[in-house]
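User: Some background: our group keeps a shared notebook of sequences we're curious about, and every so often someone picks one and asks for a predicted structure to add to the entry. Today it's my turn. The entry only has the sequence so far, pasted here. Could you supply the structure so I can complete it?
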Amino acid sequence: MNIIAGFADISLLQLLLVACVAFLASVLGGLAGYGTGALMPLVLVPLIGAEPVVPIIAISSIFTNLSRFVAYLRYADRRRALIVIGAGALTTALGAYGYTRLTNAGAAVVIGVMLISSVPLRRLFRRRDVRIGDAGLGVGAVGYGVVVGGTSGSGVILLSLLMAVGLEGAAVIATDAVISLATGVIKISVFGLAGAVTAQVFAFALLIGAVSLPGAFLARTFVERIPVHIHTAILDVAVVVGGLVMISSAARHWI
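Assistant: Of course. Here's the predicted structure to add to the notebook entry:
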């Protein structure tokens, strides 16, 4: 596999843009528990299309979630993580396989809808202050598996589930990282078997993963100093606008 070939049609300025957004997204992910999967499609889709985006983020998430897990290691709730991983493993694989069957326009619509939906979903769960037990967590993980397997930016659903069982603060971020590592491995396996992991996919994932590694540690430094609601509001706007752009682009393709 020739990694350099994956960058053949991409300019240095575009690569720098991808690297900067990846670093910013990793910092946001370290602060709020989500961000990478929501922000990266906004810069990747215009460059390389929608189809490779979920495989790229699945591979790069191994780097970002590993650094986040190490940074917050002592806070992880391993029992809750195992519940989600066990309940959602099969549906994650099914969701990933379904994604490989989509066209480029279809993938853009799926990603766009998920990004836009994530904003009101997060606000709804927070407002309702929903509480569930371990059984409810397992049931929710089954549905979450389908969504996370075939989309990007679905981290808000997992965060809502973890908070609903009583996890807070760093425990949410650390447990989310453990679960996301496992789902990332499952998705990569499915994408690899389906032939979706090309040289370009791997090259972009490697770039994003490498520049994202310091993000979680920088986020931990500022986690108690920066008002979370400020960057959350900015992220919400970016996610909704990006989702609308992807859906409109797909619509033009069909028309």
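Suggested note for the entry: Confidence is low (pLDDT under 50) at residues 1-6. The CA atoms of residues 104 and 235 lie 25 Å apart.
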